[in-house]
Write a structure and sequence with these properties.
The chain is α/β, with parallel strands linked by helices. The protein has 11 helices and 10 strands. Helix content is 42%, strand content 17%. Strand 3, helix 3 and strand 4 form a beta-alpha-beta unit. Helix 1 crosses helix 10.
Length: 259
């Protein structure tokens, strides 16, 4: 396999997909990455399928203009609603992110799992096809109304966040779940908050590591790895860069672009 120094493109409806970016960057530190935070249009979970497809195409074309060799759709809602359209329209590999239901179901002892996700993900055809495979497991679905907005506003540790999480999680605890699947790339930033509410025996699963491994596999099999090192990641947002800069622990420059 020849080397390929073109960047990996990653987009999300805001800052949440940086949880996916971190997993990719940790596994593949030599790869140049370009991250696109479409915070102006967040959250995608309340939009129509047509709107989500249009926004996903806009983001894809921005990243293709930056010569990306592969695009990671670091958004559950965009994956479940738009990735088929993206793959049919653009000649570049796409990696999507879906709620990690399979490992939760396969490890659950109670055969009851919870999933916290956006309306757009839970309503999607792809999500419903996935859950239909697991008739023997009770899957408790909960829309995380308001969570993405609070994260985008930098209010992860606010009293409002605690109140919402308690309202969403306590019924799942009472229903005897033993796995909680985070079905939105924003939600891993809530894990410290969630752990304060969940009993210790309930496991939390997100998709970051699996997406990073899939990215590595596709580079190895089809595209090629970067030959050089010290490739500084690039971050773009179409709103105030403050919250994205803070979620990256002020380690990287974030550029504001109108896309």
């Amino acid at each position: 396999m020849n080397n390929n120094d073109q960047p990996i493109g990653i987009f999300d409806s805001g800052i949440g997909g940086t949880s996916i970016w971190k997993a990719i960057h940790k596994l593949l530190p030599n790869e140049k990455t370009i991250y696109l935070a479409d915070s102006r249009n967040a959250p995608y979970g309340q939009k129509t399928k047509e709107e989500i497809v249009a926004l996903s195409m806009k983001n894809t074309e921005f990243l293709l203009d930056m010569k990306c060799k592969l695009i990671v759709v670091a958004c559950n809602t965009a994956t479940t609603n738009a990735i088929q359209e993206l793959r049919s329209k653009y000649n570049v590999p796409f990696i999507g992110i879906e709620p990690a239901i399979k490992p939760a179901v396969s490890h659950s002892k109670t055969q009851i799992i919870g999933i916290l996700a956006t309306q757009g993900t839970l309503n999607s055809e792809l999500f419903n096809k996935t859950t239909e495979k697991y008739q023997d497991t009770k899957i408790i679905e909960q829309v995380g109304h308001g969570l993405v907005q609070l994260i985008e506003n930098g209010e992860i540790n606010s009293p409002e966040m605690t109140t919402l999480l308690q309202a969403y999680l306590i019924p799942m605890i009472n229903a005897n779940i033993d796995y909680l699947v985070l079905g939105c790339s924003h939600y891993p930033y809530l894990i410290p908050q969630i752990k304060k509410i969940l009993p210790k025996h309930i496991h939390i699963i997100d998709s970051g590591e699996a997406v990073a491994k899939q990215t590595q596999n596709i580079l190895r099999e089809n595209i090629g790895f970067a030959s050089s090192q010290n490739n500084e990641p690039i971050f773009y947002t179409n709103t105030n860069p403050k919250v994205l800069t803070e979620i990256l622990e002020n380690k990287y420059t974030v550029e504001q672009e109108n896309f």
